[in-house]
Amino acid sequence: MYRIKNFMENDDVNVIDSLGAFSVVEYQKDLSVMPETAMEAYYASQMNVRKRQVVCDVAKANVTVQAGAMQWMVGDVKATTGLKGVGDLFGKAVRGSVTGESAIKPEYTGSGTLVLEPTYKHILLVDLDDWNGSIVLDDGLFLACEATLKHKAVMRSNFSSAVAGNEGLFNLGIQGRGVVCLESPCPREELVEITLEKDVLKVDGNFAIAWSGSLDFTVERSGKSLIGSAASGEGLVNVYRGTGKVLLAPVR
Question: pLDDT tens across 174-189, in order?
Fold first, then answer.
């Protein structure tokens, strides 16, 4: 039995979102400042530059988190590697090497509370039921998820265009039913969600932070020819083709 005081019921701490096993708390002001930094902290708060933390209720679901993301935990919470044998270790090592993610993401089980490190990034809680059970993430976006979800490396549809576009060949894909916790460079209010129905989206730049696993992702010339691309003033574009959704952060 445990009790937590002066945390989520604190007047300076607001719960701004909650889904599944996760809650997101936001500190309205940075109170731990010295006189010489008080003005900077005040204007940062006014511009929505605030610290945020993810609180995990492990009693609701076991959770998998990015390596090194845990700040503190209380109650019957046990940290494991989440490995299910040598084959699983090898698969995760390979996936980590190609996606740039940590090979081993700790899994927390039990019935207590787990709190992750604070961040100035914006926390998005995503229900994979809204993404038809599969989502692909831009590099560095993954923070945590319910442990029932499966991770895999998703390869681009064409190797040569990925190399030409100076993009990675693999992205992290999450599959199953459950909630994923993402660290976004933009708040939800600035994100643009595009739903495709057997259609094509072309993006000039790395503005897509997540997309449905059902979409084909390639890098192509913006025009049908090199001359056409030169005439348009654009070069290579990221192309999402098929049926699914794309989440854009156009102002990051």
Answer: 999 999 999 999 999 9
